[in-house]
Structure formats: structure tokens, C-alpha cells
Design goal:
about 450 residues, alpha+beta, Beta Polymerase, domain 2, cca-adding enzyme, domain 2, 3 domains, eight-stranded mixed sheet, 22 helices, 12 strands, elongated
Length: about 450
């Protein structure tokens, strides 16, 4: 009853607000399955306070899409006609962020509700502080505000352009996103080539959402990607790393990897790897990367922890391995110094395309460097390797290499047995004699 009175007050506070321009875009509450019971309490607090203050307030984007699909959203974003400054004045726990896109973040402990002001089309004269583009058409700054209809047209996909209106619990669907959800179609809003030029990362988002939702990519959305993949060269390596994490840590890494290669996008994220995978004299590199993706998917789907560093170590292993072999031959360096030099060069070159944070590159470097030590199975060396802090990750990587045929399965089995062997068994296993397996050429 108390909640009913509160909602009644909210309705009265916004009784004079104008209706959406077209009733055909309104899906009334009885005609959709989205319920406040599945919306986070903190998101509802933001929606209600904005609404009570006389502003239009809607849940928007992925949360609405996922709720319509019966999924549990990870984030709850809000769109409103209140300016970022207006939002900040209503919430003491608010901070304004961003230059390219001015946003308000409302903090509830670790939970952050992102609030964005409806964005306009930018058709009218605006200053460079509000809207600016690069020579290629990429949006550099976008702080032009407008109506909810304009905001819907500015969003990326039809399925991400639906608004759950807290005023009457209807869904405002200006781009027919609900219809595309029902048909399982991913469709970009507007003219695809122009939208990709505005922000080339949208091509990566096409792949990510198609795989995540299990949707078919609309032909007009799909076709330009083959010719425009090179636009990713204009995106900062740090932003591409952020997108890579989303691509490969979503639980569908293997399918994502295959689709990225199909559209020619992977080559602009990891060009050295794409070049190495194109060598036709052996197939174990593609098997290794694919198996690493599959293993990551299985761990994520079973609720186990994973580190992105392992998947990146798998992606970049073949370029490192090939370069180490070349340095070993051309510069007559021993195997370990050659590997160290190859690792440094590969990571430095990769950072020009997709940046990898130091906390991950250190992990990758150690896992790679330990691979050569697995070949030594006599004396005290196996004991020292077993006590290394990164042994387990390096051992898992060895299993990947053995599984695709790069190293002998006999060597991998030896290390599997050695870990669980008794002290007396370990002594027998490490006596001088025949080695369990050598690296394949």
C-alpha cells in the first residue's frame, strides 16, 4: 500500500509531461514480459527519483533487451531528459565522467548506475565542444542532447534501442527492436557504413552480440564489415584491449574467434597471429588457440575463475615461437635468450594494435619462458620447476601444446604423473636416462 502511494505521487508529479510522439511505438505493460521484480533496486531508486523530479526516466539498452529475452542483465543503464548537471544535483552520490560522452555515474557502494542524457542528431549547428568528427567520419566528441526518439536513432542496434518507462511501465520501441528480438535478427540502426565509420568498434560489437544472443546478422549490417575492417587501425590499442576482453571472456570465445576471422576483423586485433595462422605447413597453432578458447568457455560456463592473460598467451604463442626459432637460427642465440628476445619483440609490436596491461604481460611472459624448462626431466630441475609460482598455468599451457601435437604427449604425461608421484617415485623418474619426449619439428 505504501508503495502504491509512492507510485501515485510519482505519477502526479509528471502528469504534465508530454506523451511520446507516436503511440505505435508504445508497448503497454500487459503486452511485454518486463517486470520491476527483475530490475535492480538501485536502478529503480534512480528511475523513481528522476521521475519524481519531473524528468523522463527510462531503463535502456542491454538491460531492456535481456529482460525481454528472459535473461538476467549484468548492468542497468538509465536514459533521461535531465542534463548530466541536473542528475548530479539530484544525487549526492553522483560523479560526472567522460569527455567524448558526458555521463553521470550514481554510486551505491560498488554498484554503479550509469545515467545518460538523451542524445540528439547533431543536424543543427553545434560547437566543436559538443560534436566533432575525424576526417574518416569517426565521432570524437558527442555531447549534443535531444529527444528520446533522436536518442533511439543514435543507438547501435535495434534490440538495444528499447526504453522501459518507469512512469507507466510501458516499453518505448521506436526502432522495432522487439520485432527483431522475436525474429532473432541483429540489425544496426541507420546506414551501416556510416555507422561503422562513426565508430569502427561497432563492427566488433556486431560479432559479440550476434554470438552472445545467438542472433543472425542482418545482411545489410553484415556486408560492409568485410571492406571496412581496416578502420580498426584508427582505434586506440587500449580501447581495443577493452573490447577484446568482452569478446573473449563472454563464455563464447571460440565462436567469437571464428566469426572475427570470417569477417577479417581478427587480423586488425592480432595481426602477427593471423599471419602465423595462415601458414599452411602445420595446423597445431589454430588447434591450440581454438582449444584455449573452448577451455575458457567451459570454465566460465561452470562458474570457475579465468584470467584473460591465459587466452592472450595462447593467441600470441605462435608468433613468439616462430620468432624465437628464427632468432635462434639467424643470430645463433641459445634457446632461452632467443625466447626472451622473441617475447619482448612480440609484446612490443602487439602493443601497437591491442594493448595488453602489464599485469597480464608478466603472466604471459612467465608462462612462455617456462615452456622450455619442461624438457628437462632429470636431476633437480623438475623439482625447482614444480615449486615455481606459475607452474600450474605453465603446465596447463604445456597440456594445450601436447593436445594439438606441438610437443609430445609423452612429455605432458610425465609431468602429470610427476606432480602426484611419491618421493621415491620422483627419485626414479628424475634419474639420468631416456627423456620422456622431445619437441616436434
Amino acid at each position: 500500500m505504501v508503495l502504491f502511494r509512492k507510485i501515485s505521487k510519482i505519477f502526479k508529479a509528471s502528469a504534465n509531461r508530454s506523451e511520446p510522439s507516436s503511440a505505435s511505438h508504445i508497448i503497454p505493460r500487459p503486452q511485454h514480459n518486463i517486470s520491476r521484480e527483475n530490475i535492480s533496486e538501485n536502478a529503480l531508486k534512480v528511475l523513481y527519483r528522476l521521475h519524481k523530479a519531473g524528468y523522463q526516466a527510462c531503463l535502456v539498452g542491454g538491460a531492456v533487451r535481456d529482460l525481454a529475452l528472459g535473461l538476467e542483465p549484468k548492468d542497468f543503464d538509465v536514459a533521461t531528459d535531465a542534463s548530466p548537471e541536473d542528475v548530479k544535483s539530484l544525487f549526492r552520490n553522483c560523479r560526472l565522467i567522460g569527455r567524448r560522452f558526458r555521463l553521470a555515474h550514481v554510486f551505491y557502494g560498488r554498484d554503479i548506475i550509469e545515467v545518460a542524457t538523451f542524445r540528439g542528431s547533431g543536424d543543427m549547428d553545434v560547437s566543436a565542444d559538443q560534436l566533432s568528427h575525424s576526417d574518416e567520419g569517426r565521432i570524437l566528441r558527442d555531447n549534443v542532447y535531444g529527444s528520446i526518439e533522436e536518442d533511439a536513432r543514435r543507438r547501435d542496434f535495434t534490440v538495444n534501442a528499447m526504453y522501459y518507462d518507469i512512469r507507466d511501465f510501458s516499453v518505448l520501441d521506436y526502432m522495432d527492436g522487439m520485432k527483431d528480438i522475436e525474429q532473432g535478427i541483429l540489425r544496426i540502426i541507420g546506414e551501416p557504413e556510416q555507422r561503422y565509420r562513426e565508430d569502427p568498434v561497432r563492427m566488433l560489437r556486431v560479432v559479440r552480440f550476434a554470438v552472445k544472443l545467438g542472433f543472425k546478422i542482418h545482411l545489410e549490417t553484415e556486408t560492409p564489415i568485410f571492406d571496412l575492417a581496416g578502420l580498426l587501425d584508427d582505434i586506440s590499442p587500449s580501447r581495443l584491449f577493452d573490447e577484446s576482453v568482452k569478446l573473449f571472456m563472454s563464455g563464447q570465445a571460440l565462436q567469437t574467434f571464428e566469426l572475427l576471422r570470417h569477417y577479417g576483423l581478427f587480423a586488425y586485433l592480432y595481426p602477427m597471429t593471423e599471419e602465423a595462422l595462415s601458414i599452411e605447413d602445420h595446423d597445431f597453432p589454430i588447434i591450440l588457440v581454438s582449444q584455449a578458447m573452448k577451455n575458457t568457455d567451459e570454465r566460465l560456463q561452470s562458474g570457475k575463475s579465468v584470467t584473460p592473460a591465459f587466452i592472450y598467451a595462447s593467441i600470441l604463442w605462435e608468433p613468439v615461437r616462430l620468432l624465437a626459432e628464427r632468432i635462434n637460427e639467424e643470430e645463433d642465440l641459445p634457446a632461452f635468450p632467443a625466447m626472451q628476445k622473441a617475447i619482448a619483440k612480440t609484446l612490443q609490436k602487439q602493443s601497437q594494435h591491442t594493448a595488453i596491461p602489464k599485469r597480464f604481460s608478466i603472466f604471459m611472459r612467465e608462462v612462455w619462458q617456462l615452456q622450455g624448462r619442461f624438457e628437462f626431466t632429470t636431476g633437480m630441475r623438475p623439482y625447482k620447476l614444480l615449486s615455481h609460482p606459475r607452474f600450474r598455468a605453465a603446465y596447463d599451457f604445456l597440456l594445450l601444446r601436447a593436445g594439438c601435437g606441438e610437443v609430445s604427449q609423452e612429455l605432458a604425461d610425465w609431468w602429470t604423473h610427476f606432480q602426484d608421484a611419491t618421493s621415491s617415485e620422483k627419485k626414479k623418474m628424475t634419474r639420468p636416462g631416456k627423456r620422456p619426449g622431445k619437441k616436434k619439428k
